[in-house]
TrEMBL record:
This is Glyoxalase. The lineage of its organism: Bacteria, Bacillati, Actinomycetota, Actinomycetes, Kitasatosporales. It holds the Pfam family Glyoxalase_6. InterPro entries: Glyas_Bleomycin-R_OHBP_Dase, Glyoxalase_6, VOC_core. Residues 4-125 form the VOC domain.
């Protein structure tokens, strides 16, 4: 095992509105403080009572999926929490992932594509402070 599923991230034009929509469907808490990420006008979360955290990421000029039109496919990505970003990087590349964005030094996440081209992120697990 390389990482833990932290959340499923959906692209959207208005993160808080979409989080509230899913809150009405699933219950849970919108934008609950969580050490794994910061909340801002471009990022919102829903912590449902069951299942994984859903996160909503603002995408300027968002074009919704055109179900079932493959020219505008479904849009989401997974965030996988890892203890050692460099070791996880090596492992996912060995498994066939492609690095899309290494980020700057010190940034706690990197973006990859799975073998079919779907993006996912490796995110350094936040350590509790003593």
């Amino acid at each position: 095992m390389i990482g833990n599923l932290q959340c499923v991230v959906l692209d959207c034009p208005d993160p808080v509105s979409l989080a509230r929509f899913y809150q009405a469907l699933l219950g849970g808490e919108v934008d609950r403080p969580d050490r794994r990420w910061t909340l801002d006008s471009d990022w919102s979360t829903l912590h449902p009572e069951t299942g994984p955290v859903l996160a909503f990421q603002r995408v300027r000029d968002h074009q919704p999926p055109g179900w079932p039109d493959p020219s505008r496919p479904q849009q989401f990505h997974l965030d996988l929490g890892v203890d050692d970003l460099d070791r996880a990087h090596t492992e996912v590349l060995r498994l066939g992932a492609a690095l899309l964005d290494a980020g700057s030094a010190g940034r706690g996440w990197r973006v990859y594509a799975d073998p079919a081209g779907h993006p996912f992120c490796l995110v350094r697990e936040a350590r509790p402070t003593a």
